[in-house]
Each structure stands twice: as structure tokens, then as C-alpha cells.
Amino acid sequence: MFAKPIQRITNLFKNPRLGWVGLDISRNAIHMAQVEKLGNQYTLDARWTAFPSAASHAAIANGDSPGEPGPQRAMQSMIEQAEKARSLFSLSATAFTIGDEAIDYREFDVKAKDSEGLDQAVESELEKESSFDFEANLVKAWELPVTRRTTENRRSAAVVSADYAFTIWLGEMVTRAGYTPEVLDAIPCALARSAEMVVAVPEQSCLMVHLGDACTTLTQAQQGLPVVTRVLSHHGFENVLLPLGREFALSPTEVYLLILKASQASQDIQHSSSELLEIVSEYQVRFVHSLAAEIYRTLEYLRAEQYGDDPTEILVCGSGSVMPKVCEQLEQLVELPTQRWTIPSSHESSPGLPASLYAVAAGLSAIAWERS
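Now predict its structure.
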């Protein structure tokens, strides 16, 4: 007779206000966040960022993929820094993702009647790729929203895969740092959850623009789900950072911090007297114009295909979101309301860093409530 009341009490502890620790890992930074949820209000309860140590910059500069020795050394140094931040977070449970295209993302339209059939259909599609090795990869697939279905018994699936050995190594490093890895997630899924935290109307569709280091990810998000995702492999923020680093003999992190400082000071770098900031402006303008063209092309595709409701706004996040005036520039070019992703912070554990850097980490933190 006490089973149901005890179950309800247990569920109270399984559904805490605090989410997991979200780790957004790339070769140029690790952003960590833990979100607090009160009703429909979300707050960054704790956040923290690690940048590569000076000794790691040479490894990053090799340009290897994230699974190669150089970037692995850089990630290892940042995860070791994350160990020092363990006391900031009240839980050890962790969801993480890897940027810099270390996780491959695909979308398939397949013939399937149910979830079991979906998995089999996805496996068949991957088998068609001669270079894909099931034994060397971790694979996760899920069904996209029903608005993507065009005919009966056909379903749209999102599929992510990551190198098995590299993922296991990364999980072991996170464990050594005092955290408990629970889920390896994909950036589009995290972006969709973080979008749900800020949209004014739950049913509202928006376009999340994640300006990552190696690529930009565009995800149409609605009701916490990624409807359509497009990855722009040649439109990463490194298109701004690396040329400037070479020209002024600075590391990407040093260039990044310089741009961040300009943004915090609310300076218009297009009218700065500094030679360096003028050159930064030149690279930024070229980058933003190219990016805006891709965003506009994506919006036209979404409207033509009618995948759910048309996005009513653009939310910008990721490392490139620190560029001064980037939202104003994109809004003028794309002609859609554009702002940085942000939610309030309960306290400043990473002073001076904008909340838009933690959108992916916040979306990872929110997985806790899906599992409760």
C-alpha cells in the first residue's frame, strides 16, 4: 500500500532542479555549464571555461583532426583544468559533445514502420558508404519530428557517429577529472534544447546558428527538437582566427581573447584606430557576409520544403558569437530578428564571458530532465 507514495518521493529526488554538467569540448576551449530549472525558467547555475595552455598551442596549430595526437594533448590539458573546477558543480553526472566535426552528423529519409525498422534502415544506409566502419565508430540514431514525414511508412532519421577509440579515451579523461560521463550527445540536439530555454512561445520555431571553431552548425529548432540541421564545414570561426594569428604571430586563443575584449568594451571595431582591430574587422566582415549568404540559402530551403513552421528569429551562439556587432550585421543581411542566445546566470563563475558561449553546454545539461 506504500509503493506508490514511496515511488512519488523517489521521483522527487530523480527530478532535481539542477541539470547535469554539460561539457562542450573542442580543441580551442572547453565550456561547461549546469542549468537550474524552476518551472519554465532556466538559469546558468554554474559555468566555467578552460582554454588551452601555452604549451598546447603548437599542437593545435598542426591542424590535425580532434582524434590526432596534437589536439588530444590540448584537450587533455583542458580537461585537467576542468578537474580544478569540479567543486563549482553540485553533480558529477555529465553529458558531453565534441566539436570541430569530430562527431559526424547525417540525415536520412528511410522506409520504416517503427523504431526497430528505423534502426535497421539507418544501418542499411550506412552500409552503402564504403568508407564507414561500424566497428570503429559509435553510432546513435533517432527519428526527427513527424513534420519531416512525406509519405506513409517513411521516416526522417538523424544519425551521429564518432570514432570509438577517441570517444572512449575522452570519457576516461573526463572520469579522471572527477565527473561521471552519462551521455555522448550531438550538437544539433543540444542546440534544440537550449533554444527551448529562451523562445517566448513554446511552439515557436527558430534557427540556431552555432559559430564553432572549425564549422558552423545551422539547426532549425522547435519544441526542443532539431528539425533540420546543416553543417557548414568551411565557415568556422577559425576563418577569422587563424589568418590573424599568422599575420600577427598570435595563437588563436590570443586572437580570440582580443576580439572578446573588444566586444565587452562595446567598441565598434570598424571605426577603431587600432591597426590590429581594423584588420580584425576586415576578416569579420568577409566572414559574416559569406555566412549570411549560407543562412539565407538555408532559410529559403526551409520555407520551400515546409519543415514545420518558418523560423521567426535567429539565435547566435558558439565561439564566434563574441564578434562585436555580429548579430546586427546578420540581421541586416538576412532580414530576420537576430540576437545572441542567453539565459540569466545565478553567479559569475566565468566573469567576462558571454552566456552565448554556453548554449551547447546548457543544452547538454538539460538531458537530465529527459532521463528523470
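The radius of gyration is 21 Å.
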